[in-house]
Automatic annotation (TrEMBL):
InterPro entries noted in UniProt: 4Fe4S_Fe-S-bd (IPR017896), Electron_Trans/Redox (IPR051684)
UniProt keyword list: 4Fe-4S, Electron transport, Iron, Iron-sulfur, Membrane, Metal-binding, Transmembrane, Transmembrane helix, Transport
A GO MF label: metal ion binding
Domain of life, source organism: Bacteria
Protein name: 4Fe-4S binding protein
Transmembrane segments: 21-43, 63-89, 110-128, 140-158, 257-276, 322-349, 361-382, 402-421, 433-451, 471-489
4Fe-4S ferredoxin-type domain residues: 64-106, 151-184
Cellular component terms per the entry's GO annotation: plasma membrane
Species of the source: Entomomonas moraniae
Length: 506
């Protein structure tokens, strides 16, 4: 008879199940706060020049959504798995609530297509840049509000007390699925104990994101809501190695669209979306097209008469796209995605050919890029955070050093993952070196793109004496932090004397 030990950490997971009503109350508070910040600023006038975050609701909402909410939701995926989805997400909660009163239809095959999260992420990222979603309230309402309405609409048609939208269509579900694979926390399942079905028999939990709990051995799909905690004495909240899910189970990933999302979306389109505003290449590209149009007597694409819901149009703020601007933004971002994604795919394909391990190795090896992709998303989103903080009078001089530290750490983490993946296959030394060289080349290209954004195009020095000193201090702090966290996790995972714990139904 096998079982998972009861630990202080697993008891916390049981509390999530026992106090589900409290979680619902938290969700309603977040829903109301979310709707308030989303709706009210969209109908207010643009902030005056002297407005600041603390005295203007529009700027406050902008800072909350794009300076705090989204960057740190992504960070939470790496730290706490998908607890945001299961406990805090207003969109998921509304989708589940709508399905409670909906038509309870079965999800059709077209809706279950694996490519929707990747396509939705790329299109949402692109459209957000077209209408400047980070800078204005109406675009935020259009994109975030539109997504919320779509989630409720899907809930009204499909499933009963389920999150069909989150499972198949949410624009960030694929990103969350990838990042959660790095989390040190997850609900561990003992399949043999599940089959034994020991007493007491708890009511079957409602797994809203439609996860096969019995066979779950990762955090990529689980919303960490705690509803299944203690089920059959086989499900416990526990810690794990941050490398476990990728190294030990990455070869079981059979969804090629997740890899496309990683290579073409996170490492391609997202980089283009974050860098075009500071890129001299973009300026040269736009000027070349504009000059060609003028030489040939074509002037209408230079008119700033685009609607705000298609391209940015706020002339009262001296911020309006003409048709050339919009065209260049779209093609520049998509071009980044196609070029970088194709290069990365080709290099990783060459690595798989060198190892002669086929598609399984290709997918497994690509997953090792997740730490670098996660760092890039966080850096790109927090660029808005830094901009807004500086606009409110704070210098934050240490930010460049922290960015460099994050890039270096994520690159090293990806390389370690890649090496451990390589060691799981029967490869000779030449094959190992060849595949690792390919992987290092991909990491170097990604690193170089972020270097250009934060240092190269601004003519800033990447390394200087103060930077090296700060990196040493940050590295020492990080090591101490990791040691403390490991000691804490060790204590939280220490089995209690009693091997069973009473769990009540929601």
């Amino acid at each position: 008879m096998s079982h998972l030990p009861v630990t202080p950490l697993s008891k916390f997971g049981d509390l999530l199940r026992r106090y589900g009503g409290v979680i619902r109350a938290i969700q309603w508070f977040i829903i109301l706060f979310y709707l308030f910040l989303l709706l009210i600023p969209a109908f207010m006038s643009l902030p005056p020049d002297k407005a600041r975050v603390l005295n203007n609701l529009t700027l406050f909402a902008q800072f909350v959504f794009w300076g705090i909410w989204w960057p740190f939701v992504l960070l939470s995926m790496v730290l706490f798995s998908r607890a945001w989805c299961g406990i805090f997400c207003p969109e998921g909660a509304l989708a589940e609530l709508a399905s409670k009163y909906g038509k309870n239809k079965g999800a059709p095959n077209w809706l279950k297509w694996n490519g929707w999260p990747a396509i939705a992420f790329i299109l949402t990222t692109l459209y957000g840049q077209m209408i400047s979603v980070y800078d204005y309230a109406k675009p935020a309402l259009l994109i975030l509000g539109g997504s919320t309405l779509a989630a409720v609409g899907i809930g009204l048609f499909y499933g009963r007390n389920k999150r069909v939208w989150c499972k198949y269509l949410c624009p960030v579900s694929g990103v969350f699925s990838l990042l959660a694979r790095l989390a040190p926390l997850h609900f561990k399942v003992d399949e043999e104990r599940w089959k034994e079905n020991p007493e007491p028999h708890l009511p079957v939990p409602n797994c809203a994101p439609l996860v096969d709990i019995r066979r779950m051995h990762g955090a990529s799909s689980c919303h960490t809501c705690g509803r299944c905690s203690g089920q059959r004495d086989a499900v416990r909240l526990a810690t794990r190695s941050v490398n476990e899910e990728i190294v030990d189970y990455g070869q079981e990933e059979h969804n090629p669209w997740l890899i496309h999302l990683l290579l073409f979306g996170i490492l391609g389109v997202a980089i283009g979306a974050f860098t075009w505003t500071v890129s001299p290449w973009f300026i040269a590209y736009k000027q070349a097209i504009a000059e060609w149009l003028v030489v040939h007597g074509v002037y209408w694409p230079l008119n700033q008469d685009t609607p705000w819901w298609l391209f940015t149009h706020y002339p009262e703020n001296n911020d309006a796209f003409n048709w050339v601007d919009g065209f260049c933004v779209v093609t520049y971002i998509l071009g980044h995605g196609v070029v970088l994604g194709s290069v990365f795919s080709l290099v990783m394909f060459i690595a798989s050919k060198i190892t002669q391990q086929g598609k399984v190795f290709y997918t497994h090896f690509c997953l090792a890029l997740i730490p670098l992709g996660a760092a890039g998303l966080f850096l790109g989103l927090t660029a808005t955070t830094v901009k807004l903080i500086r606009q409110n009078g704070f210098a934050i001089l240490w930010v460049q050093d922290v960015r460099l530290m994050l890039l270096l750490c994520s690159t090293i983490w990806s390389l370690i993952l890649a090496y451990r993946v390589v060691k799981k296959y029967p490869l000779n030394l030449i094959q190992q070196l060849g595949s690792m060289l390919c992987f290092t080349f991909v990491c170097a290209i990604v690193f170089y793109n972020w270097y250009l954004m934060f240092w190269g195009w601004g003519h800033l020095s990447l390394f200087k004496l103060s930077t090296l000193v700060n990196l040493v201090v940050y590295a020492a702090t990080l090591v101490i932090f990791i040691i403390i966290v490991k000691l804490l996790f060790k204590r939280l995972n220490k089995p209690l004397k009693s091997k069973t714990i009473k769990v009540t139904q929601l």
